[in-house]
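Backbone-to-sequence.
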């Protein structure tokens, strides 16, 4: 294999790697948002499974946001980089963190109003 073929192969591998950056963030964010419906799982699903999934939402959301920002930082200054996956992962991760926190704050407020 000549050096030109090696360089062409390595440049296509680098381009493919740059295109797939942010995929981890997107997957983590999508899983975290999908897990928000875990309390609605059917009754035969054991309660410990539902609770484990519910308690994993915020950590997965935070992981999605962090990995998305890391991917965006690594893509900074590169012209052919596709930032969509990383940005989508950041957005989904943010949603997965904000919605449970809003629900918790609302529940605390509602309980305080009920006992006054």
């Amino acid at each position: 294999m000549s050096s030109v073929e090696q360089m062409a192969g390595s440049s296509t591998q680098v381009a493919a790697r740059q295109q797939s950056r942010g995929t981890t963030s997107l997957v983590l964010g999508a899983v975290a948002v999908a897990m928000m419906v875990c309390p609605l799982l059917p009754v035969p699903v054991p309660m410990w499974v539902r609770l484990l999934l519910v308690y994993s939402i915020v950590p997965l959301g935070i992981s999605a946001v962090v990995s998305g920002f890391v991917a965006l930082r690594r893509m900074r200054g590169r012209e052919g980089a596709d930032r969509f996956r990383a940005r989508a992962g950041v957005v989904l991760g943010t949603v997965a963190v904000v919605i449970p926190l809003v629900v918790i704050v609302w529940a605390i407020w509602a309980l305080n109003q009920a006992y006054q």
